[in-house]
Amino acid sequence: MDPQTGQPPKKYFIHTFGCQMNEYDSGKMRDMLARASYLPAVSAEEADVVLLNTCSVRENPANKVFSMLGRLGELKREKPGMIIGVAGCVAQQEGKNILRRSPDVDLVFGTDNLFSLPEMLEQAGQGRRVARTGWGKKSKEKDFVPPQEALASLPDGPKGQVAIMKGCDNFCSFCIVPHTRGREVNRDLSAVVAEVEALVSRGAKEILLLGQNVNSYRAGGKNFVDLVYGVAEIPGLERLRYMSPHPKDFNLALAIAHRDIPQLCEQVHLPFQSGSDRILKAMQRRHTMAEYLEKVAMLRETVPGVQLSTDIIVGFPGEEPEDYAATLDVMRRVRFDHLFAFKYSPRPFTPAAKLEETVTHGQKGERLDGLLALHLEILAQIHQGMVGSVQEILVEGPHPKNPEDRLGRTRGNKSMTVVNCSAPAGALLRAEVTGVRQYSLIGKEVKPWT
Ligand code: 5AD
Ligand code: SF4
To answer: What are the residue ranges in the chain where pLDDT is below 70?
Structure first.
């Protein structure tokens, strides 16, 4: 029973679409709801409050929101008191339109209104329909996470994530993010450190620093490299990662930080989007392919064995077969460990949306398939080469299909099944790679956990 109302506690369900920043925001919503005495529900059917945290980076996930709202509307007719809320980038973009289009939605809030959730829920509970998509006070440096929320941060098992900034000033011509998350705003180093400390004190061993363009971070006279050194000093923090850096801002100092800071993992996600300078220019990416490859070479020289992942878009307007061939060529040269590849999707407000599409849907599909096939071929070779090597594994928990085994990740961020292992979540162990799957590794402990 809820001691204040004498009623059974209310339950919430959050469905998160899209990127890590949305995952972070959903975590904050969970923390706020827990403090307001809500319990998590296992499904929308069981919940009193259902929140969709939405993504509009491509058309597909944005459309999915409306089909999901249709299904939730049917559920609400069986459960009239239910509150349906839409958060995130589609909410920011569409605002009140969502209330007009979907009569069952009670609450719409944008990316800058996240921390008013308890207040908005109260209003919705009184039968009001609420839409808040205004931007907060404009400032390049600001703690957009209220300090009490930062200090209440909860990790997800042994892993936690902390936003160091929000928004983006890059305006890549295809990207809606600067419109849905606004201009870049950087948190103070001390605020980031306080949030990481809160997560570590609650059991986090690994922290992911988040931002749309992390290495352009600047606040209180500190840059991203200063921030990484500052965070790495926190006692009890075993592993540190960040996502995503922009190639134009990737420098030698950051590569040296990887070499010199034991906690900073040998793994970098460095999007290149296209292997063709002509397309990069049309994408307003502000780097050439030669510059990208030089930075990769510098990083590999400074941090031997560093594992790289990337984002690629196929079928940008004007992409000819030779541009696509250049993208494949970069993949052969860099040999990425992870690949996130997407079909170009025109987005509202973006300059690229005004360009005529020249690549058909079918061609985009073929190009995407080609990238994935090449990636898998390279990945199989990379994984074979790892057999027999010993990896440090951070255990995330029992394997969902076999509780005798453990699931964990290497420092390079590869998923590994450690067979016959009893180590608890959060343990760091050493495991020899004994087998490979398409996207993950199989291993056994070098010295069994006791
Ligand atoms: N179409 C396809 N992919 C896109 N991305 C961003 N905008 C678009 C778009 N309009 C991809 C980019 C980015 C990743 C997060 O999503 O590759 O790095
Ligand atoms: Fe979008 Fe480019 Fe900013 Fe990334 S760097 S969020 S792709 S505008």
So the answer is: 1-5, 449-450
212 C-alpha to center of ligand 1: Å? 12
Q: Residue 38: CB within 6 Å of ligand 1?
A: no
- Cα separation of 434 and 349, whole Å? 50
Segment 60-77, tens digit of pLDDT: 877 889 999 999 999 999
Pick the CATH number of 147-384 from 3.40.30.10, 3.40.50.300, 3.80.30.20, 3.30.465.10: 3.80.30.20
- Identify the pLDDT of residue 60: 85
Pocket mutation for ligand 2, best pick of 21, 55, 165, 175 (most atoms within 8 Å of C-beta): 175
CA 414 from centroid of its chain's CA atoms: 16
Full-model pTM: 0.95
The domain 387-447 is placed in CATH, from the list 3.90.640.10, 3.40.50.800, 2.40.50.140, 3.10.310.40, at 2.40.50.140
Domain 11-132 architecture: 3-Layer(aba) Sandwich (3.40)
